[in-house]
């Protein structure tokens, strides 16, 4: 079973509610290999939707780079940001957001929800399939074995149609593991670096800290 909880909650409180659960931090502040599940992680070589010949370092760079504001169009230079910092483009700096451009050279602007469906969600799926397949397989195996996994994310909104709250990427991880991933077919083919699931050695250690290592690199 996979559950999404806010990383802002105290871990002790979460584990009290779900005794024996395995907490998995999937944010950009994770201190282990699971940081690779963050949309900010610079995997590199991620194809930009509707933009032949363009790739980016991370999902967030694509999402932010294709934004169009009153005073600024797309930012292709952002596609190469590999620092996990200074990626967000804000209203304070660029003015009112007009939408997301459907491709670097596209003429159509997508609304917020439609951009989620055609840009963010398919791009993140590509990463799950081509960059972190081994971690996903371990999560799936543990879930199928009856373990309770707590995905910790700063955002917990799992409703794609809810424009009032940011979409939780943890909800997309959960959906992918469980075979219910939405709107994930708009990314073009590109050279991939698919990671094959690695076998893990059995251990006699118990407790969620040791079990967490099963998902790590």
Report on this structure:
It is a single chain. The protein is of the alpha/beta class. It has seven helices and eight strands; from the N terminus they run βαβββαβαββααβαα. The protein has helices at residues 11-17, 59-65, 91-94, 112-130, 133-144, 169-177, 208-212, and strands at residues 2-6, 22-25, 46-47, 55-56, 67-69, 97-101, 109-110, 149-153. It has a three-stranded parallel sheet, sandwiched between helices. A three-stranded antiparallel sheet has the order 5-6-7. α2 (59-65) runs antiparallel to α4 and α4 packs across α6 (169-177). It is globular. The chain starts with a strand and ends in a 5-residue tail after the last helix.
Mean pLDDT: 89
Distance between the termini: 22 Å
Strands of the widest sheet, in order across it, are 1-8-2
**Continuous helix count:** 7
Q: Structural class per helix/strand content?
A: alpha/beta
H/E element order: EHEEEHEHEEHHEHH
Give the radius of gyration: 18 Å
Which segments are poorly predicted (pLDDT under 50) over 5 or more consecutive residues? 191-210
- Strand portion: 5-15%
The total count of strands amounts to 8
The largest pleated sheet is described as: 3 strands, parallel
Helicity range = 25-40%
Overall geometry: globular
Topology diagram in text:
Blueprint: E1 2-6, H1 11-17, E2 22-25, E3 46-47, E4 55-56, H2 59-65, E5 67-69, H3 91-94, E6 97-101, E7 109-110, H4 112-130, H5 133-144, E8 149-153, H6 169-177, H7 208-212
Parallel strand pairs: 1-8, 2-8
Antiparallel strand pairs: 3-4, 5-6, 6-7
Helix pairs in contact: 2-4, 4-6
